[in-house]
């Protein structure tokens, strides 16, 4: 069959297209050709993180990957059979290990036996989920589809050095089950962690905590807020600081706000940024936050049945994931904008 041609410049126009396209190519066995990769970015083409992800998928499916070099704007992938066993990906930068997991996890689910992934790079990086988000928000929700994986954070890595490492063990599935998340319920619990690593003083973690709590208290007065201040000592490479705050609902929904410190930015501001992000995601009354909705599209497309997930405003990343999933599968995805935003995926992927 001729490869499915994917325009890498449409909608979000970035790494999201690469991740969803490559994973679905691996799972469906459909060859793909992606053109105009990141065409609208200041540095078009593949960056080290994207290249590592594509190489990882190609390794997982015994595929033939062509044109994949730093800066390349056109690649093709011809997948083979998905292989279980040990697989390693190293961005050799602070590129996000969580984005590597996003592309690899769906593929590893459909191997014949368990897979072990060694992912190296940044664990707490800008423009990507922090590893704490992946473990505390993404993992519990994706487990509702029948996904089962364990993740061991061996070393945390930050911008610009990277140096982080996580080991992930993925159990295979026969099929995924559909998920319905349409009842938000009430917020029952707010907790989180603020951390410093390397030479940064512990006081920064406490300042982030205090600022976050003050901000949340302006809108949510009745709940106990438990944000722990932590000093990362032995399992962190380089210097870094950040915070993640998680809200849980009475129906099992999870929402988060997070932020990372930067040179010259006061710790208070980092804590306030994370708190305001959390409050924004609670206000929309959906069942997932703005950063989870796009990550769930591929699992909704692969599930055996119809999934429905109530969201806030459908993000550009989510629209992009829907667009690519429709190109590479036999499912129908609709984002309905009525009184509520409801993402509905009907059908089962055809192998």
Distance between the termini: 14 Å
Shape: globular
Question: What is the helix/strand order?
Answer: EHEHEEEHEHEEEEHEEEEHHEHEE
Task: Provide the structure class.
Answer: alpha/beta
Strand proportion, as a percent range, falls in: 25-35%
Instruction: Provide the CATH superfamily of the largest domain.
Output: RNA 3'-terminal phosphate cyclase, insert domain
Strand count, sense and barrel status of the largest sheet are: 5 strands, mixed
How large is the radius of gyration?
20 Å
pLDDT < 50 runs, ≥5 residues = 336-340, 347-351
Mean pLDDT: 92
CATH architect. name of the largest domain: 2-Layer Sandwich
Q: Please name the CATH topology of the largest domain.
A: Dihydrodipicolinate Reductase, domain 2
The CATH class of the largest domain is identified as: Alpha Beta
How are the strands of the largest sheet arranged? 5-6-8-7-12
Count of runs of 4 or more consecutive helical residues: 8
How many beta-strand elements?
17
Total domains, how many? Answer: 4
* Helix content range: 25-40%
Describe the structure.
With 351 residues, this protein is an alpha/beta fold. The chain has four domains: 1-82, Translation Initiation Factor IF3, CATH 3.30.110; 83-173, Alpha-beta prism (UDP-n-acetylglucosamine1-carboxyvinyl-transferase, Chain); 187-282, RNA 3'-terminal phosphate cyclase, insert domain (Dihydrodipicolinate Reductase, domain 2); 285-350. 31% of the residues lie in helices and 29% in strands. The protein is built from eight helices and 17 strands. The strands form four sheets. A five-stranded mixed β-sheet has the order 5-6-8-7-12, with helices on one face. A four-stranded mixed β-sheet has the order 1-2-4-3, covered by helices on one side. Helix 5 links the parallel strand 10 (187-197) and strand 11.
């Amino acid at each position: 069959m001729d490869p499915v041609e994917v325009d890498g410049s449409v909608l979000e126009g970035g790494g999201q297209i690469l991740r969803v396209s490559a994973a679905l190519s691996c799972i469906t066995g459909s060859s793909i050709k992606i053109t105009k990769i990141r065409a609208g970015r200041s540095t078009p083409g593949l960056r080290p993180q994207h290249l590592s992800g594509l190489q990882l998928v190609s390794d997982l499916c015994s595929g033939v990957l062509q044109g994949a070099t730093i800066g390349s704007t056109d690649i093709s992938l011809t997948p083979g059979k998905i292989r279980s066993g040990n697989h390693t990906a190293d961005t050799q930068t602070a590129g996000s290990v969580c984005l590597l997991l996003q592309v690899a996890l769906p593929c590893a689910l459909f191997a014949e036996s368990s897979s072990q992934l060694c992912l190296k790079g940044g664990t707490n990086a800008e423009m990507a989920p922090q590893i704490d988000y992946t473990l505390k928000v993404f993992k519990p929700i994706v487990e509702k589809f029948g996904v089962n994986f364990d993740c061991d954070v061996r070393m945390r890595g930050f911008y610009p050095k990277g140096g982080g490492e996580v080991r992930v063990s993925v159990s295979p599935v026969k099929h995924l089950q559909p998920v319905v998340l349409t009842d938000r319920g009430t917020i029952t619990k707010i907790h989180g962690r603020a951390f410093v690593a390397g030479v940064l003083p512990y006081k920064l973690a406490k300042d982030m905590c205090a600022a976050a709590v003050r901000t949340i208290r302006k809108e949510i007065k009745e709940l106990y807020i438990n944000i722990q201040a932590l000093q990362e000592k032995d399992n962190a490479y380089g210097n870094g600081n950040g915070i993640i705050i998680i809200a849980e609902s009475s129906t099992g929904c999870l929402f988060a706000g997070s932020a990372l410190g930067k040179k010259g930015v006061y710790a208070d501001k980092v804590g306030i940024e994370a708190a305001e992000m959390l409050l924004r995601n609670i206000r929309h009354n959906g069942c997932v936050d703005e950063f989870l909705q796009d990550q769930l599209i591929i699992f909704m497309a692969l599930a055996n049945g119809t999934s429905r997930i109530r969201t806030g405003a459908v993000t550009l990343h989510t629209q992009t994931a829907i667009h690519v999933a429709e190109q590479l599968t036999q499912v129908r995805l609709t984002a309905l904008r009525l009184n509520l935003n409801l993402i509905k995926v009907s059908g089962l992927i055809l192998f």
